[in-house]
Write a structure and sequence with these properties.
about 100 residues; alpha+beta; five-stranded mixed β-sheet; 2 helices; 5 strands; about 25% strand; binds zinc ion
Length: about 100
């Protein structure tokens, strides 16, 4: 484990300042403060947008546009490990449609 483990998580973001604060506040409130478990680094990059995981009721027949799980992405700035967090669990409200 590197010396970064004792420091609070640091986030680099391409979101605007308000959205970055909303996301990082939610991560902090939910205890997302551990360093990367792959390399021990404690600086994370926020993805440049939201992600959506489509729920597939049948693995052999791809369905588009059905139920989905919205998420934000954190990537370790050192090793690139990717971690997705559900915006539903974090209570993050994406901006209204068309406002981005
Ligand atoms: Zn890492």
């Amino acid at each position: 484990m590197s010396g970064d483990a004792a420091k609070p998580a640091h986030y680099q973001s391409s979101f605007d300042a308000e959205t970055t604060k909303q996301i990082t506040d939610a991560l902090t409130a939910h205890g997302v403060n551990k360093p990367c478990f792959r390399c021990g680094n404690n600086t994370w990059r926020l993805g440049t947008g939201y992600f959506s995981f489509t729920v597939q009721p049948d693995i052999y027949n791809l369905t588009l546009g059905g139920p989905h799980v919205p998420a934000i992405l954190l990537s370790c700035s050192r090793c690139g490990f990717l971690a997705f967090h559900s915006t539903l669990t974090l209570g993050i409200q994406p901006p209204p449609k068309g406002a981005q």
